[in-house]
Fold this protein.
Amino acid sequence: VMFGAMTLNAVESAISSAKSVLEREDASTADLKGQMDQLQSALHKVSQALYQQETQQSAAGGAGGGASAPEDKGDGDVVDAEFTEEK
């Protein structure tokens, strides 16, 4: 999976910052929320990059390049039976 260096650096930086805030005993809820927001933003960029890459690969593969549905092999050894519960 190919990401831009900026995307990876943003994620690593957000993780590092979040860890440093978590290690501080005087960290406020606002500090933690801010770091969490930064981390979510960085991970969102990774998700976008993955989606774009998948879209490009699908487009390059054409209509036949997608996943195929599993073949239906019939019912096999299915037995139709009635069930009654005795009391």
